[in-house]
Specification:
seven-stranded antiparallel β-sheet, alpha+beta, five-stranded antiparallel β-sheet, 9 helices
Length: 465
């Protein structure tokens, strides 16, 4: 019979052990400022790596740019990069784990340090000093004879202090919002972290290269979170009505534009906008940015034949001479002869080469030239628009977090000033302190003390008269 209480006691102890461990061991570690700093630095380092290392590219891209011999910094090869997930840093489990751990650290610090401190300051309004020796701890304090608390009250009210009085003791404070500011900063950072996690799990990034005049649906997804399927549009498409480039007088590209229409499932236009760099199209949480351009095809005529369109492919120049596109145009019906046509942009000169690689002629769009015994007329160069497509449902959350962060920072700059006063044995004791803006507070206190001294002198003069 005696073993039962002992067993129940041990069983109860086992049940409370996790709770005790959480409060006494885990929470203090999470609330440690050093841990928060280390986590923040780690997040910053990996965020920088996600900016430096191209994200969401193909394996072939990383093999070409991050070879094993020689490896970047002696160790960073394409195998290491893909194994660690540095090609999609912001969606890796370890980066999300860092965000969650940093958020846990902020939460623990808020509940263990910030909120208790705020509660202490709010309770201070009910704590009044009752002994003169308590005023000796203040760096700025004074003692007056023949001065009462009633003389102090209007002076503090003028400085917008909130007053609390208990018999012959007085407490005044202002700027308590400065103590709330750090809590708001913590809350804003937690909101930003939540937004980052939501974006990593539900957002996607895609690219499309679309010829002018064609309609497309978003399918070329480069990077997507595990829950991004609902964000990828399936009931609407986009038509590129027209793509064109504006050039400077010197022939350089000034700006490129895409006139685009959003079409519903029945093909009806629901939105239309001309986009260019830094002016995207947004629809149902999806943003389409003007990011690139290319040449997709060329329309030509041989003698009096109908106009026909031939695709153009980008040629590998080895990084020299910029980008060029080329195609082969037959000059005989049996395809036994033809010429190669090279283009660099949508308005410049087109170069025509024979089968031996010799330049035989040049031509511009809208003009014609004789080649191989026929007349080759170039009607139009068909451009294609390069679009970067993003969907990130977390953007409103992140923006709200940054707005709250700015508010919290401004609140934190407000000084929390406190003044105590005690009237005892015919003496008035007064002292105060602040958490910031010490010089301004000292000037304020000195002004109050000088006015009290002036009032005392005036009162003595009246009594003497």
């Amino acid at each position: 019979m005696s073993a039962n209480p002992s067993f129940l006691t041990r069983l109860s102890g086992w049940g409370t052990a996790p709770k005790t461990f959480f409060r006494r061991e885990l929470l203090p570690v999470l609330a440690d400022l050093r841990l928060a700093i280390v986590l923040l630095l780690a997040i910053a380092v990996f965020s920088i790596s996600g900016t430096v290392v191209e994200q969401g590219q193909s394996a072939a891209f990383y093999q070409a740019n991050y070879p094993e011999h020689p490896a970047l910094f002696g160790f960073l090869s394409w195998k290491v990069l893909l194994t660690l997930g540095l090609d999609h840093v912001y969606r890796t489990w370890w980066f999300l784990a860092l965000l969650i751990l940093f958020g846990s650290s902020l939460t623990a610090c808020t509940f263990m340090r910030q909120l208790p401190a705020l509660r202490w300051f709010s309770r201070t309004s009910r704590k009044f000093y009752s002994q003169p020796r308590q005023f000796q701890k203040f760096a700025l304090s004074a003692e007056f004879e023949q001065t009462s608390l009633d003389d102090v009250l209007p002076l503090l009210e003028e400085q917008r202090y909130k007053l609390f009085r208990q018999d012959d003791a007085l407490y005044a404070r202002k700027g308590i919002i400065g103590r709330i500011g750090p809590i708001v900063v913590h809350a804003s950072m937690l909101l930003i972290l939540v937004g980052a996690i939501v974006g990593a799990l539900t957002g996607f990034v895609g690219q499309e290269m679309v010829p002018s005049g064609q309609t497309f649906q978003i399918k070329n997804i480069l990077d997507a979170g595990p829950f991004a399927e609902s964000q990828i549009p399936k009931d609407w498409s986009v038509k590129v009505n027209r793509f064109w480039i504006d050039y400077t007088p010197a022939g350089a590209i000034d700006q490129f534009y895409s006139d685009m229409s959003v079409l519903d499932s029945e093909g009806k236009e629901v939105k239309r906008k001309t986009i260019h760099v830094n002016e995207p199209l947004r629809y149902r949480g999806v943003t389409l940015y003007q990011a690139d351009w290319g040449i997709s095809a060329i329309q030509v005529r041989i003698n009096n034949s109908p106009i026909f369109q031939l695709p153009m492919a980008q040629l590998d120049t080895g990084g020299k001479g910029g980008r060029i596109w080329g195609t082969w145009i037959p000059t005989k019906p049996d395809l036994s002869a033809g010429v190669s046509l090279i283009a660099k942009d949508l308005q410049g000169m087109l170069l025509i080469y024979d089968t031996s690689g010799k330049l035989i002629s040049t031509v511009r769009a809208g003009m014609s030239t004789p080649v191989n015994g026929v007349t080759l007329a170039v009607k139009e160069i068909v451009g294609s628009t390069g679009l970067q497509i993003k969907a990130d449902p977390s953007i409103p959350i992140v923006y709200a977090g940054f707005g709250l962060l700015m508010l919290g920072v401004m609140m934190s700059y407000v000084s929390h000033s406190q003044i105590w006063a005690l009237q005892k044995d015919g003496q008035l004791y007064i002292g105060g302190l602040t958490n910031r803006a010490q010089v301004a507070f000292e000037r304020e206190m000195l002004e109050i003390l000088e006015r009290l001294d002036t009032q005392k002198q005036e009162t003595n003069a009246v009594v003497a008269a």
